[in-house]
């Protein structure tokens, strides 16, 4: 990934990624409403901004102020084993999707160089744009965000400035989400992903 980031062209158009931020979000919301996928216990999924989660259980909860017999997922974030998320199976608030297959993960890596960096023209909207990108659950959007943040950090360092806490936090989250999913899909360790991606992309160049 470092090789890819260091060789970014600064004048790439960003319209494709900007469109993905809207279209991909709507796509997943429509899929949830029109035909909700039922995940299985033990399955790994992507759950919104929390990234990779394991479906630990599917339970029924009767709430006094809600519908009876409503199904809920009990999720555990993969890299936060002491954390737990309980969310309705039919919830439309958070985008979810299955983990990438091995073939899909390899195809994504092979096309990393083609993904353009996300553009944020208004600093006041920067955090909102980062949140939107993470919430899409789209790996291509995460990559575009990582590229944009890398370039922003590079520019600031050249000016003698540090990366802002905001940028650093979202940069780490985007990398964690991307590398966690790719590692699971490929049966590898998360800390092996940067070198693996770099070697594979260089081999294709």
TrEMBL record:
The organism's place on the tree of life at top rank: Bacteria
Descriptive protein name: CarD family transcriptional regulator
Record-annotated CarD-like/TRCF RNAP-interacting domain positions: 38-150
Signal peptide residues on this chain, from the entry's feature table: none
Originating species: Enterocloster bolteae 90A9
Xref: InterPro entries: CarD-like/TRCF_RID, CarD-like/TRCF_RID_sf, CarD-like_C, CarD_C
Regions crossing the membrane: none
